[in-house]
Specification:
Blueprint (H helix, E strand, L loop, with lengths): L2 H10 L5 H12 L13 H10 L9 E4 L5 E6 L4 E9 L2 E5 L3 E3 L8 H4 L2 E4 L2 H10 L8 E4 L9 H12 L11 E5 L3 H10 L3 E5 L5 H7 L2 H4 L2 H8 L10 E7 L7 H10 L6 E6 L13 H13 L3 E4 L26
Length: 335
Amino acid sequence: MSRDALRSAAVACGLKPFVGDQLADWLYVKRAGSWDAMRNISKDSRAQLAERYDLGIAAPIGRAVSTDGTVKYLFPTENYTIEAVVIPDGDRRTLCVSSQAGCKMGCRFCMTGRQGWHGNLDAADILNQFLSVDNPTTLTNAVFMGMGEPLDNADAVFQAINVLTAPWGFGWSPKRITLSTIGVLPALKRFLDGSRCHLAVSLHNPFPDERLEMMPVQKAWPAADVLDLIRQYDFTGQRRVSFEYTMFAGWNDDKAHADALARLLRGLECRVNLIRFHRIPDFPYAPPARAVMEAFRDRLAAAGVTCTIRASRGEDILAACGLLAGQHSHGSEQS
């Protein structure tokens, strides 16, 4: 709930509106895990609140630790389970957040997409991932790159981002948050108009026909249309846009693709992140050699495109990009 919604909740229990301010402080600033912890709210008032509302905090029911320190969590929601990942990197701890159980977008190379869609998370499910991982107050960044397409569940995602960035909430700078999308155009415009968070676009191929082979969304929201919208916004300041480019041997890793990608992004202040494809069952493609990725990166750089090769993290626990596939019924074991 927002602060205004918490005030309304307090009034609905016959309490003063300022109790809503106290609730916001306990939930989002002090991170209280129980009603009893809210010591400046009277016992009777806490009982009235507890009778009508649930705090929405749920501990993970599964946890796996990678050899590189990455930790994957399995969380329960009302009808299914979802996964979130914490990635340590020096003084940074980044939470990879899920917004849906499964995904409707059907990208052929993604384990989440191949399992289908099982439901949207609500804002409480999303925020619970921030509250219930180990040492949550030490998180420094968040990426909406977990299970699901965030802009296919835009209302809940925007509600969660509001709590994360509001001064009465977590008080995070929008610069600490990146939202990744394949390009859901109506919701993308809402995001660009209403948020200062960073944007990452899953591109993966500069040629429309080839992109459509792997990403059905290309038919509904072509990459060219997504780029036309992005070019209407300023990314020369603190807000950044990046393009995710998963590389497959023999499909999108040659000079022609690098040159087409450079042409597609010409004049746009952006970064390309090259991602090594992580093998999944019953899929014909393999990752390219490191030397091929480096040559692709160097060719983009020579064309004036800032480009990095993203390090894979958590692959041994199926926590790397494209591998999240939480089960969708309670009692399931962690994958």
